Amino acid sequence: MPPVPERNASVFRRFVESRNGLGFLFMLPAAVFLLCFLTYPLGLGVWLGFTDARIGRSGEWIGLENYIWLMDDPVFWLSVFNTLFYTTIASVLKFGLGLWLALLLNRHLPFKNLFRAIILLPWVVPTVLSALAFWWIFDSQFSIISWVLMKWGIISQPINFLGDPWNARWSVIAANVWRGIPFVAISLLAGLQTIPQSLNEAAAIDGATPWQRFTKVTLPLLTPIIAVVMTFSVLFTFTDFQLIYVLTRGGPVNATHLMATLSFQRAIPGGQLGEGAAIAVAMIPFLLAAILFSFFGLQRRKWQQGAD
Description:
- It is a multi-pass membrane protein.
- It is found in: Cell membrane.
- Belongs to the binding-protein-dependent transport system permease family.
- This is Sugar ABC transporter permease.
- It comes from Paracoccus yeei.
- This protein is mainly α and 308 residues long.
- It has one domain (73-302): MetI-like fold (Orthogonal Bundle).
- Helix content is 73%, strand content 0%.
- The protein has helices spanning 4-17, 19-48, 65-71, 74-105, 112-119, 121-124, 127-137, 144-151, 165-192, 197-205, 210-238, 242-247, 259-267, 273-281, 284-298, 300-304.
- Helix 4 runs antiparallel to helix 11 (210-238) and helix 13 packs antiparallel against helix 14.
- The radius of gyration is 25 Å and the shape is flat.
- It starts with a helix and ends with a helix.
């Protein structure tokens, strides 16, 4: 009977040499990184949501009091509405415009590579710089949009983009759409280029119109990548902070406060760490719903592979 250490060494060697073992070893550094910089802050935030912690004071356990108080807080519910409205409208617009742009760039166009590089600029520019640019574009006195419309005789006075509640909502959505379209477009373009051209050619020979080829061939094969891209788009939009905070800081009269910005305002400037953490934790069910959307979207791969 071989010694136990030699047997353990043999088991470990087989594990390392196996495909699953090698994959586990490659994933281990990333798992440790996520454990330290994601799991711990998330766990701490959940814990703080059940305490009355303030800046400079650890706080005591108060159970669900923060969440019960939020249920009666009109500003919190306004931030929930703003977040859902902002995420839904911006995500739909980014998907529609991004898909149209991806289909356009997938064609044989002159200087196609140059256009693809230019389209990426809004995505690679730092968010704060983009927000500052839009802050000037939407300025109540010096807005270039108002100036052009006044020159054309369409309006008689500058538009108060960021001072009116609904104007402010649509303005921050426009800024988010401008910034997010490149990610959606380039990702969908990559998906389009994986679809064999022979499928569209065969459908065209069978008499399918361009719309039929798109809905019956292109769109079904693009569904998995759409699910992944839109999941990330929804997550990025739902948790948006920098763009809103630089442009409006949640104003006017809390009209553009998202759950992320309200959580920051209550926790850091307001000093109520427990309340801010509770607002952040309240975002988790919405984020899980987006992840489930991606999961069920990826199940369409079974259809592509011929599974039942």
